[in-house]
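Feature request, filed as a ticket because there's no other form

It would be nice if the structure record came with a short human-readable summary line next to the tokens. Right now we just get the raw output. Example of a typical job, pasted below so the devs can see what we mean:
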Amino acid sequence: MLKINLFILMITVAMSSGAIAQSPQAQKILIYKGPGTCQGCPEAISSLLTKAGFNTQYIKPGQLTKKNFKKTAMYVQPGGSDDASEVINALSKNEIKNLKSYVFNGGKYLGICSGGYLAGRHIVDKETIKSFSLLPTTVDEEQEDPDSKIERIKWKNKKRSVYFQSGPAFNLKHLPNADIWAIYTKTGNGAALINKYGHGKVGVIGPHLEATEDWFDDSDLESPGLSHHLLMDFINTLLQDKSIFKRIILNG
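Raw output as currently delivered:
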């Protein structure tokens, strides 16, 4: 009897501390689909998350409201066009504030390629482009060549070949407390990482780990194999909560 009561007590404490994660079905994930996204990018990440059991919903400019962010487990900013400012120009200042407040108060942000640029201070021709400013660092191009290619990265100390097109490089010197998941093997720049923003977390990935086989075919690239398992491992870690956050109002 004592052992049973102790077990129940342990389960209760774990649930109250957020140690037991919600099932995927209970987690709503918002995926931006609007001006500034590339063809097939929102759909690729949505398909992957839906197959994993998550409740995915597309969201467009005019819909980044406080109401829509309620009970949201993660916001996804997928890959986009060569001009990341298209997204910024499509959103109102209040919508950007709502997004930042959501993350600051314990939400999760996943930025892939263009979404990674938008997470930090994006540099184009030595000019700083306005962004979400969720990362305290500048974000530059990993390489100037705009063509799709197979890029080599070191993911958790294992070399991988992944789909890449005009992806961002993250300045690790400005992110001393970040959880570094991947670097580009040629330059050593950050390719994937998770960093705190207020009480929330920001996960950014330069390469397109959500790419499907048709992406390789359309670009006349020989597929090295899909990277979906890497992306899902990253997302599952991003979604984990080790404590319950106290809500704080973000000003500005």
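Something like this underneath would help us a lot:
Confidence is low (pLDDT under 50) at residues 1-22, 243-252.
Residues 32 and 105 are 20 Å apart (CA to CA).
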